[in-house]
Write a structure and sequence with these properties.
single chain, alpha+beta, 4-stranded antiparallel beta sheet, two-stranded antiparallel sheet, 1 helix, 21% helix
Length: 78
């Protein structure tokens, strides 16, 4: 998993995107990295009590590797 690959905007929030390879097995690591490592180091705050995932293809639990992205709404610390 790479760090946030970029940031989109939606409303007043920023949306860092974390790309994950390896299918469902990598999801715990993705969230752990995003919330435990990346977010505190960024100095930003979680904008909403949710995040979302984007799957490039229909999720096939048997096929490897599969790829998906985790989007996390953040806001700048005031």
């Amino acid at each position: 998993m790479r760090s946030a690959r970029g940031t989109g905007t939606r409303s007043a929030s920023l949306l860092p995107v974390f790309d994950v390879q390896g299918g469902p097995a990598g999801i715990d690591d993705a969230y752990r990295h995003a919330y435990r490592d990346w977010l505190p180091a960024s100095g930003d705050l979680q904008a909403f009590p949710y995040d979302f995932e984007q799957y490039e293809k229909a999720l096939d639990l048997e096929a490897e590797p599969s790829e998906f992205s985790v989007w996390m709404p953040i806001r700048k610390k005031e």
